[in-house]
Amino acid sequence: MAAAAATPTPARLMKILWAHYKRAATDDHENLLYLPDEADARVCHVLVVGLGYPYFGGETIFKLTAPNDFPLKPPEVRNLTENGVYTVGCKICVSIGE
Fold it and tell me: Which of 9, 14, 43, 61 would suit a FRET pair with 69, their CA atoms being 20 to 30 Å apart?
């Protein structure tokens, strides 16, 4: 899943992202698994499992890509799994404020 970073991640963003990744790693959430991309700190894959309808019984992988001005702008979220709910590769609008 790792891909070469197009441009270096700014130091400020790196600090923010690693704080988020460390928090995610210590959160004991039975439905989520976070996998930061080793080649690009702006990218994180999230495995979502064990949810109710319409995801019941399925596993879905999302790719989150943080822009350089994160957290002022939300990450881009794309579905990577054929699941009958989202088209593979499509951008998904997520309300970060909820």
Answer: 61
User: Would you say 33 and 50 are in contact if contact means Cβ atoms under 8 Å apart?
Assistant: no
Using an 8 Å Cβ cutoff, are 44 and 13 in contact? no
pLDDT tens digits, 14-73? 999 989 888 888 887 888 888 999 899 899 999 988 877 766 777 889 999 999 999 888
pTM (predicted TM-score): 0.78
**What CA–CA distance (Å, rounded) separates 36 from 42?**
8
d(CA 42, CA 63): 10
The answer to whether 59 touches 85, Cβ cutoff 8 Å, is no
